[in-house]
Design goal:
Two copies of one chain form a homodimer.
Chain A: E1 4-9, E2 15-28, E3 31-36, E4 41-44, E5 46-52, E6 57-62
Parallel strand pairs in A: 1-6
Antiparallel strand pairs in A: 1-2, 2-3, 3-4, 5-6
Chain lengths: ~60, ~60
């Protein structure tokens, strides 16, 4: 499997795990839609700041 | 390993493989910086349109 976990970067520098086992990601103008390997969806008002796929990490920042 | 391959979506609907074994991704205002598992870097004037991580795919569109 090659899913990743999504973390929201907070203003204080902390990383908050917001969604696990992310498979599909669709960036949109107002945010980001993510779907995990179980078909569960989540939409956040955020954008991708950085990804480190070998570490299974997607870092998001609020928009 | 959990790297992905980056494909550029062309206007005719074709997918052009532009970078393989992508590990790190940094979206920027003018484009996207990618680094593969060997440390090789590539910058494209593109943004992420969609990702299907279980399929190891990152779909980019030109900006």
């Amino acid at each position: 499997m090659c899913e990743a976990n999504a973390y929201l970067l907070k203003e204080d520098g902390e990383e908050e795990l917001v969604f696990e086992n992310v498979d599909r990601v669709l960036p949109r103008e107002d945010g980001i839609l993510m779907e995990d390997i179980f078909g569960k969806k989540k939409i956040l008002r955020a954008r991708i700041k950085e990804m480190a796929l070998v570490d299974h990490k997607i870092f998001l920042e609020a928009i």
